[in-house]
Design a protein that fits this description.
about 25% helix; about 475 residues; 24 strands; 7-stranded antiparallel sheet; Pdz3 Domain; 2-enoyl-CoA Hydratase, Chain A, domain 1; 6-stranded mixed sheet; alpha+beta; single chain
């Protein structure tokens, strides 16, 4: 059976920050009622299955005749009005055909597709089998969607991803993001090989081993190539814009444990919580940290979301539910089973903090997606003010759909609006107090900056005092 999970993330650690299979028992005790985690991407999967078989020995167009749904897609319960399906040829038992609705647009596109297939099969410099071309078409279709967050993942990639989501992995400890056509480091884990060798935040990848960074299909594939077995080496070339120089590193991979929450008391009554990423289990760690800070006397809290590229929707909603009274958190608008949906997520009346507790969220240009949801929702509720820089601006969410051969597709499935009705996609959140770090600290790990010299943190403390 195919599995899925919703996530809203922007950047990728070298351990591949992608969702593992959804396990309901892991969040069954959480208060947020996640009523949209069961969405199915019937239409998308059906199209992929169609393209995966699109060039058997026959491409067929029939009027309005529709065939029964494909056996490989039974679990998705598609609508009976499915417009494309795979069937055995009526003329030969060893042939397959496709059935589309007979429209001028479909006929023109299929004729073009048949022509391209024929050219590649006859004139490509290497002989290609039909199934090789079919697989290339399937992955190419996914990767040609307008959203950069929709892409295909090979079975090998998925296996690495599932291993990584245990929270421990083997890599260099760098968080990688895509900015335009470039891949750069948005954060570095403390005491990791990446930090020890001298890599810095905002370094842009030029090469990974012998492959130019521009050759990677997406940020996830680059991150996958940085990962590897503990004790093995990876060669990395980067460009550092702040110095206008190129640097080369040979880094030995190591086991990395990524703590997603770090907390401490800043003053007698102000607590500090750095949310590194919204990965699996962060909600429980967040609640434990908040309870501990309140036991130490915290009246108000600074949430540090700098360089946090996002994560799982259910985790951030759980955390917001803990902080807020009964009411709307976000609204998701998207498609499932070929139909549009709009669903509001709400918190219940039970809170884990006093109702008068106030917050400041510190953000920068690398704060994206779930981070923007978290901070934006708190501000809309008039519980928090934002300090720092305008955030990245990713207001859409994805689900990862696992296919029967072990591969998977990450698909942009919905966009979300904050309680005010605004969407941050392409815009980001503008801070209430625009504060930049001093130049010498902008490429440093946040936790390595001395508190007294952290201008953004000092402004947050000033507001809460």
């Amino acid at each position: 059976m195919q599995q899925y999970r919703h996530n809203i993330n922007f950047n990728q650690p070298d351990y591949i920050q992608q969702p593992n299979e959804y396990q309901p028992d892991q969040i069954q005790d959480k208060k947020v009622k996640n009523n949209f985690w069961g969405y199915f991407l019937t239409s998308i999967i059906s199209i992929i299955l169609t393209v995966a078989m699109i060039l058997g020995l026959l491409i067929s167009i029939k009027g309005e005749e529709l065939f029964s749904k494909a056996q490989t897609n039974k679990e998705f319960s598609p609508k009976e009005s499915q417009i494309i399906n795979i069937k055995e040829s009526e003329n030969a038992s060893d042939e397959l055909s496709l059935v589309f609705k007979n429209t001028p647009a479909n006929r023109k596109s299929l004729e073009k597709l048949e022509m391209i297939f024929s050219i590649l099969q006859n004139d490509y410099y290497e002989e290609l089998s039909e199934n090789q071309l079919i697989d290339a078409m399937a992955t190419g279709m996914v990767d040609q969607m307008e959203s950069p967050y929709t892409f295909y993942m090979t079975p090998e990639y998925v296996a690495e991803m599932e291993d990584a989501m245990s929270g421990e992995y083997s890599g260099i400890g760098a968080i990688v993001e895509q900015v335009g056509a470039s891949y750069q480091i948005s954060d570095i884990i403390e005491d990791s090989p990446a930090e020890k060798c001298g890599l810095m935040i905002n370094d842009v990848f030029v090469k990974v081993d012998d492959k130019d960074a521009s050759e990677f299909e997406n940020v996830s594939m680059l991150a996958l190539n940085i990962r590897g077995e503990q004790g093995t080496k990876v060669f990395i070339e980067i460009y550092r814009a702040s110095e206008n120089k190129y640097y080369e590193f040979e880094i030995t991979r190591a086991n990395i444990t990524n703590a997603n929450i770090r907390s401490e008391m800043l003053t007698d009554d102000i607590g500090y919580v750095r949310i590194v990423e919204f990965n699996e289990g962060v909600g429980d760690n967040f609640v434990a940290a908040m309870d501990n800070l309140q036991d130490q006397g915290a009246k108000n809290i600074v949430f540090d979301l700098r360089n946090n590229g996002g994560g799982y929707v259910n985790e951030v909603l759980y955390m917001l539910d803990y902080l807020l009274p009964e009411g709307e958190l976000i609204t998701e608008i998207g498609r499932r089973s070929g139909e549009e949906f709009e669903i509001s997520e709400v918190s219940d009346k039970n809170m884990g903090v006093p109702e008068n507790m106030k917050y400041v969220c510190i953000m920068n240009n690398n704060s994206a997606s779930a981070s923007e949801l978290f901070a934006g929702c708190l501000r809309d509720w008039e519980k928090a003010e934002l300090v720092g820089e305008t955030s990245f601006g990713k207001g859409v969410g994805t689900i990862t759909q696992y296919l029967e051969d072990g591969s998977a597709i990450q698909v942009t499935n919905f966009y979300y609006n904050l309680p005010s009705g605004t969407n941050v996609d392409g815009e980001g959140l503008t801070p209430d107090y625009e504060v930049e770090l001093p130049e010498e600290f902008r490429n440093m790990i946040i936790s390595r900056i001395d508190q007294e010299e952290d201008t953004q943190l000092q402004k947050a403390i000033e507001i809460l005092e």
